[in-house]
Amino acid sequence: MTESGGRLNNRRIALGITGSIAAYKAVELLRMLQNEGADVRVLMTNSAVEFIGTLTIETLSRHAVDSDVLSLRGDGRIGHIASAHDVEAIVVAPATAHWIAAMAHGLAGDTITAACLAASVPVIVAPAMDGGMYMHPATQANLSTLGGYGYRIVEPESGALASGIVGKGRLAALEKIVDATVQALSGSPVRDSAATDWPDTDSAEAETEAPAKAEAVAEAVAEALPSRTDLAGRHVVVTAGGTAEPIDPVRFVGNRSTGKMGIAIAEEALDRGAAVTLILGNVSVQPPAAAHVARAETAAQMQAALQALTPPEGPLFDLLVMAAAVADFRPRSPQPKKMGRSGSITLEFESTPDLLAETAERVQTAVARSGRKKPVLVGFAAETGSFDRVAEKLKRKGVDLLVANDVDSPGSGFGTDTNKVTIFSIDGTHEDLPLLSKREVAELLLDRVLIRMADAETPADGEPAAGMSAEAPSEPTEAKR
Ligand SMILES: Cc1cc2nc3c(=O)[nH]c(=O)nc-3n(C[C@H](O)[C@H](O)[C@H](O)COP(=O)(O)O)c2cc1C
To answer: Measuring from atom 19 of ligand 1, which residue has the nearest CA?
Structure first.
């Protein structure tokens, strides 16, 4: 997510976050770098992951976090080496005393030190720690060693520290860190992003291959272009699959959902240019590689993922489609150890939270508080026999569209590649679609969503609001009534 006209337009930056109490400030720093136009990929130490987790960062940066120094990327490249080669600057903020010491001694035990060692780009380091730690001769010596490497140190500030003591060690103002990054990059041309995705080209063999590579890049770009662009610039979150509620570490209570419907929606949204986050329970199909996937096996994990995406400052998505089959009940007291075979057992169940209603309410509150645009909310309701309850359910849950399917009807529901659904709308209408492939259902559903988005974003004079695609949604099929 970048804005044009910033001082870091089209720059590719790695943000390294280490295990300081100030790690939470890195989320805001990430947004500030993005607002300057940078594409930011985040590297974290294990301690930083302990402090702030990865879900928020991954959602905001639109990239997987590199936190495991032994991990490979999906394309087989070594994560930290790829980061080192792909970026034009590395910003380490906050930098702990421990990380600074490791870096000063070239210890490549985490992805940030490893990337800094492998890279030959400007490195900006913003220390944050207790005053005593900062003033210790060891830390001061380590910082001068980093200075000797040419790293830019953004000095911490004096003030009240997390320990309650007043001293020097508070992370510098974030504006200063951004300014130092801008300064470090001033004068160096923006690197061609496509070129950096290729391995080193300084061998003779690489030179002779150059024209073929240019063609391959053009082909890859053409392939990556969405077939339609009416969801470009939108962040779509889809929940998919069934939840698995543990009985003990081995057994669970689940349902028959395979995740096919939710994944079809994610694929359709990606094809139409959206950035997609998939919150994935138990599924039997492969999620699309271009989606950011957050695994959430239980109703509680799905709830946590949805809460992280709906902070009080405003929802972090434009569209939420809740297609997952979330358990309505879970074992009240899952056993910590595998239960042995011993006669019969009785399980006591408790209700799980109503995630659809709860999320809709959080979204309402966050939108009212932040003044941000209200995202479109879509729920799915698996029914058996009749849809009599659906219109009332839609109102009660507070969503814009509720997609009902009769899981008893042939070709509809769990595990099939087809679905027969009725789309109920908050405006009181409903629309029966014929038996269609799940992908066709996804296409028609997203068409309906776009109409709602356009309605919400068109000012009274009828002109589409800024940022709205002028492209009309595809004509509804014969199913529209
Ligand atoms: C609550 C808490 C806050 C901490 N804050 C800091 C800090 O601000 N700066 C620092 O250098 N270490 C801090 N530490 C200690 C580091 O987390 C610890 O040295 C850790 O090993 C750093 O790992 P990393 O640099 O690999 O992320 C803190 C520890 C705790 C428990």
So the answer is: 98
Instruction: Name the pLDDT band for 458 (thresholds 50, 70, 90).
Output: low
Residue 104: name the closest of 80, 71, 131, 127 by CA: 127
Whether residue 163 is predicted with pLDDT greater than 90 in this model: the reply is no
Q: What percent of the chain has pLDDT over 70?
A: 84
Structure confidence at residue 263 (pLDDT): 96
Region of 158 on the Ramachandran plot (φ > 0 left; ψ -120 to 50 alpha; else beta) = beta
Q: Which CATH superfamily is domain 12-191 in?
A: Flavin prenyltransferase-like (3.40.50.1950)
Which of 15, 17, 21 to probe ligand 1 with, by most ligand atoms within 8 A of CB? Answer: 21
- Closest atom, ligand 1, to C-alpha of 18: 27
Phi, psi for 344 (deg, rounded to 5): -105, 160
Report the range of poorest mean pLDDT among 44-48, 181-185, 223-227, 469-473.
469-473
Q: What is the pLDDT of residue 477?
A: 34
Which residue puts its alpha carbon closest to atom 2 of ligand 1? 21
Active site residue 255: yes
Q: What's the gap in Å between 113 CA and the centre of ligand 1?
A: 16
Could you identify the atom of ligand 1 that is nearest to the CA of residue 109?
26
List all residues 6 or more positions away from 283 whose beta carbon is below 8 Å from its beta carbon.
240, 241, 242, 257, 258, 259, 263
Q: How far is the CA of 31 from the centre of ligand 1 (A)?
A: 23
φ, ψ at 420 (rounded to 5°): -120, 115
CA–CA distance, 407 with 315 (Å, rounded to integer): 31
Backbone phi, psi, residue 459, to 5°:
-70, 170
What percent of the chain is predicted at pLDDT more than 90? 53
User: What is the Cα–Cα distance from 183 to 354, expressed in whole angstroms?
Assistant: 50
- Smallest CA separation from ligand 1 atom 1, residue: 21
Whether 22 lines ligand 1, by a CB cut-off of 6 Å, is: yes
Pick the CATH number of 235-457 from 3.40.50.10300, 3.40.50.360, 2.30.110.10, 3.90.230.10: 3.40.50.10300
Least confident of 53-67, 220-234, 254-268, 301-315: 220-234
Q: How far is the CA of 23 from the centre of ligand 1 (A)?
A: 9
